[in-house]
Amino acid sequence: MLKHVIILILLTAGVVFGTAHIQPLIILLVSAHDWVSQLLLQVFAGGEAGNIARQMLALLAIPVIIGLVPACIYWLAKKRMFPYCMHVVWVIWLIQATALIVLYKTVI
Length: 108
What we know:
This protein is mainly α.
């Protein structure tokens, strides 16, 4: 329990001190999501089902691509599967989903 509290305090301090450096990365992540979403507009129809499919693929594409980069580099170096590939994908997905929820604007 003490170990978790110490890690939580260290991560909180890292976020507080690193916010100015992390914010451009979050903006880049959201911009990449918007670019993929706009790119997928050409593929999917404009109906409700097309919009849902486009939004789901756009939300999944960036974390999977970012997770595949270290996995491919690791495979080229070690000729084995990267042991934490899905962990990387989940962390990027959570960060991206949180940023998109915070920036969400309702269209009236």
